[in-house]
Amino acid sequence: MASLNISLPAALRQWVDDQIHGGRYGNASEYLRDLIRKDQERQAQERLETLLLEGIRSGESSPLTPQDWAELRTEVAERLQRYRVDRGKVSR
Question: Does the predicted TM-score (pTM) go above 0.90?
């Protein structure tokens, strides 16, 4: 695991220490990793919301037919298979 040194003002360092002493985290690294993961999740959620809004604003919608659903299922199954092959989870 790579290390990273950061400098914090006293007030922020005290905040980190308080989080550790509160028992939720074992050390500053655990606390910072949790903050980074939460920020990653927040950004992913924002991206999803942006894509959903773009879809809503993209124009008139039309109902999906049974054929549309069948094509979607086929495409997803093919993508999943390619993903698994690319990741070495399935032999070629």
Answer: no
